[in-house]
Amino acid sequence: MITRRNFLRRAGAATAGLVVGGIGSVNALNAESYQRVNGANRKVNLACIGVGYRGADIIKELEKTGLANIVALCDVDMGAKHTREIMGKFPKAKQFKDFRQMFDKMGNEIEAVSVGTPDHSHFPICMMAMALGKHVYVEKPMARTFYEAELMMQAAAKYPNVVTQVGNQGHSEANYFQFKAWKEAGIIKDVTEVVAHMNSPRRWHGWDTNIYKLPEGQPIPQGMDWDTWLMSVPYHDYNDKYHHGNWRCWYDFGMGALGDWGAHILDTVHEFLDLGLPYEVNPVMLEGHNDYFFPMSSTIQFRFPRRGDMPAMDIMWYDGINNQPSLPKGYGASELDPNIPTVAGGKMEARKLNPGKIIYSKDLIFKGGSHGSTLSIIPEEKAKEMASKLPQVPKSPSNHFANFLKACMGEEKTRSPFGVFGPLSQVFSLGVIAQRMNTPLLLDRNAKEITNNHFANALLAGLPPRRNWEQYYKI
């Protein structure tokens, strides 16, 4: 078992570590017994944690399936402008600011939770929910640190009757089923390189990269529980540059463009090419590097070893408005998936090169987008030549939200459980460490330790949690 003690001891840091013990847990609700007791037509009693912006979108999608009964709403800013719509939509749902109080007061009425909160807060919420036997749907990138993802995978294994799903929606759409079918049919094989690109503007673009300290404190908005918003992260004074989605900009709270969009671009590549963890991560180019928020542009190389009969391969990640990769001959137009979810009510603007990937194999080149976008073979002449050899691709029996709720009822298995997405979340964490330190990383994939930099190795675990949050780091 990987523990924080192991990580920090290997890094040469002095620490008392964390004791294995965990939150007081109860037996998880078995999905099959759920059906027998409650009947196949009964809805899942769902508590929703994070009810503004993306959290609101998740709640609407879960409710749209007809399989969810929203029994509780929880948000540290409950009653603010961005949370009022959901409060009004579900007036009978009980309201809370603190997820711990919610579980304490009505845990017996809750069967599953959705978690649509900032990246840094996913971990404690999910750990408590799993320990209490509640099924969990959590937004990507699952966890902020390598160690948190490790513990979440261990908890999911400890509570096998708890259903988990990470919110990379394309994993239940055409992209997932096509990639799986093409891989199994031998169309996708001998992949040596994947180029992933996300070149749209980010919130921190335009900020001053000569920053030498964190933003000055501002008055906490009336009615906001800032202390709970911070959760296990060391205390920061409130500033609006952390709130309303801006948390994604900062190493202390978010995962940048890589954690945000990598989950929608690289999910099928990672799963079906059996990539696991890289052995080397190189920050090839960082423009606007600083110690606090993400670079204006990043090119990061992830190197993966040979896996079975699959050759060693690299992933090249490009983000930044002008940091675009070279395109192969015959690439054609870059299409934007019209089903990309809205963020804060706005659609993503199409650009010359939209988020996506290029997959280079020994014999073929594939072009793909993000989320549910399917692959195409390029150039067009090669696609026509291959048309008769392509296997039939099955249609998805359920979207990502219905898949989760049906899994809660024992009817399906989730397609992006913690055991599948966790290693990819750890890949992103390694990329973020390389961005933050602006140095190459060498990883022992078996020991799960960085071997060439003690400080980077300590960042796998990150700083110890604040007082009264240690319990979530115990299993």
Description:
The protein has a 9-stranded mixed β-sheet with strand order 13-12-11-7-10-9-8-14-15. The chain has helices at 4-11, 31-38, 54-64, 84-89, 99-106, 122-131, 146-158, 174-184, 226-230, 256-265, 267-272, 380-386, 400-408, 418-437, 454-459; strands at residues 44-49, 68-74, 94-96, 112-115, 135-138, 164-166, 191-198, 280-287, 297-304, 313-319, 356-361, 365-368, 376-378, 441-444, 449-450. It has 15 helices and 15 strands. It is of the alpha/beta class. Helices cover 29% and strands 16% of the residues. Helix 6 (122-131) packs parallel to helix 7 (146-158), helix 7 (146-158) runs antiparallel to helix 14 and helix 10 packs antiparallel against helix 14. It has a domain at 175-332 and 353-394 and 423-474: Dihydrodipicolinate Reductase, domain 2.
List the helices and strands and how they pair.
Elements: H1 4-11, H2 31-38, E1 44-49, H3 54-64, E2 68-74, H4 84-89, E3 94-96, H5 99-106, E4 112-115, H6 122-131, E5 135-138, H7 146-158, E6 164-166, H8 174-184, E7 191-198, H9 226-230, H10 256-265, H11 267-272, E8 280-287, E9 297-304, E10 313-319, E11 356-361, E12 365-368, E13 376-378, H12 380-386, H13 400-408, H14 418-437, E14 441-444, E15 449-450, H15 454-459
Parallel strand pairs: 1-2, 1-4, 2-3, 4-5, 5-6, 7-10
Antiparallel strand pairs: 7-11, 8-9, 8-14, 9-10, 11-12, 12-13, 14-15
